[in-house]
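tool=predict chain=A
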Amino acid sequence: MCGAVLSDFVLIGAAALGLGALLAASEFWFNVVKWIGVGYLAFLGLVLLRSSGSAAVALDRTSHSADVAAADILARSFFVAATNPKGYLFFSAFLPQFIDLARPQFVQYVTLAIVFATIDFVVMFAYASFGSRVAKFLRSTASIWLDRLCGGVFLALAGAMAVYRRATN
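tool=predict ok
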């Protein structure tokens, strides 16, 4: 969750610096970011398919291993969100309509980033709260099947991202 929120700042900063425009204009750079994201989503999908039930394991972790797992989860969620070229394109198209060119743009982009990241955090926190309540009811076999389902979804998303073509003008 925190990794995805941190990636919001990266995506918005990159959009403010024109990376979204570069991805929209350059098929090469769009494909570079897209294929990094495809590869990583496919990797995560395969890891989940081979998992032994991470939800059940996560409930039994000690505090030390939970710290390591938290850092791993932060990095994974950041990387998934930061390698999605659609995020760059979205922010490049969405944010400029809220920017007043007569005023300092940096402050406006920072304000928008904070607002967006806060909303993103609140929504993801609600999902995580619900998920943690549901996870307590999952037994080991249910957790394994949930991981397999999520792995399949990640592989499907990787496939969808692989065939995604950017719009041509």
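The radius of gyration is 18 Å. Residues 105-135 form the longest helix (31 residues).
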